């Protein structure tokens, strides 16, 4: 099996992937703190692209559209340990630990590359994975609290995301879609993240764009792909997943249907 996940608690897991490439588009319901053991990950959000490699530690905030592309590298599998910082655990922590500064969602991935204290916190968990035992609940709670305290001591602004427990409210639909159209999410998820029911989302979308969400999303993604291939001189195989398509053949068919020529032909023209 290419993808294997081992849990030592519901909040702490080790994931290992040995295939060529694994892509997922997701909105995490919890903050995810990740320690990178081997391989490579590309994380794509609305305003930034991040690449992580062996030794990196990073925090992905919850309720943000995120494309995650995982690759094995240098003959090693893609291997990570991830800790879910759930709202319940964080609320319990901040009941007795006052947040520093203003609590607000910050639109970024936090990087804590090769931080010795965080590395030590994660490395101490490997023993439990190796022997296949469940981490006792009291120890698990201590490890999660340890990680939170290290994060706060490393970056004072991290309270702005960890201590914020608001759910998405109704926001400007056009602004949100223009920033996030490349994420291949369900319409239900787009509706939730803009603070709408699916019916209200469809109605509001029609008023703004005078077309369906599906048609608009496809056209926007194809135009973005065209820009990357022609202007940025990138290959179609490097682009199709980043702009929201699941496979190369579907992307090539849709591209040719829309523009009248295939992405490979455009790539030749751009040389």
Automatic annotation (TrEMBL):
Pfam families with a match to the protein in the record: ExsA_N, HTH_18
Membrane-crossing residue ranges in chain numbering: none
Superkingdom to which the source organism belongs: Bacteria
Keyword Transcription: yes
Leader sequence residues: none
Coiled-coil stretches noted in the UniProt entry, renumbered to this chain: none
Record InterPro entries: ExsA-like_N, Homeodomain-like_sf, HTH-like, HTH_AraC
Keywords, sorted A to Z: DNA-binding, Transcription, Transcription regulation
Keyword presence, Transcription regulation: yes
Residues of the HTH araC/xylS-type domain: 171-269
Molecular function per GO: DNA-binding transcription factor activity; sequence-specific DNA binding
Protein's UniProt name: AraC family transcriptional regulator
Species this protein is from: Flavobacterium beibuense F44-8
């Amino acid at each position: 099996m290419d993808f294997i996940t081992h849990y030592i608690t519901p909040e702490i897991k080790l994931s290992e992937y040995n295939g060529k490439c694994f892509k997922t588009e997701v909105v995490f319901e919890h903050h995810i703190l990740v320690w990178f053991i081997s391989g490579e990950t590309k994380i794509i959000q609305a305003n930034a692209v991040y690449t992580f490699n062996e030794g990196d530690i990073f925090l992905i905030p919850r309720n943000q559209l995120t494309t995650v592309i995982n690759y094995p590298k240098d003959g090693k599998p893609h291997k990570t340990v991830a800790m879910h910082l759930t709202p319940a655990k964080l609320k319990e922590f901040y009941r007795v630990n006052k947040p520093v500064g203003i609590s607000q969602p910050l639109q970024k991935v936090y990087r804590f590359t090769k931080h010795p204290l965080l590395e030590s916190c994660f490395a101490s968990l490997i023993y439990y994975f190796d022997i296949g035992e469940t981490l006792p609940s009291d120890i698990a709670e201590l490890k999660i609290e340890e990680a939170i305290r290290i994060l706060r001591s490393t970056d004072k602004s991290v309270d702005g995301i960890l201590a914020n427990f608001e759910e998405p409210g109704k926001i400007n639909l056009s602004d949100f879609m223009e920033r996030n159209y490349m994420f291949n999410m369900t319409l239900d998820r787009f509706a939730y993240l803009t603070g709408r029911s699916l019916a209200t989302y469809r109605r509001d979308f029609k008023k703004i764009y005078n077309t369906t969400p599906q048609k608009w999303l496809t056209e926007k993604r194809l135009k973005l792909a065209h820009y990357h291939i022609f202007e940025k001189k990138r290959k179609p195989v490097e682009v199709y997943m980043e702009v929201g398509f699941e496979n190369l053949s579907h992307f090539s068919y849709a591209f040719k249907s829309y523009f009248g020529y295939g992405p490979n032909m455009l790539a030749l023209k751009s040389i």
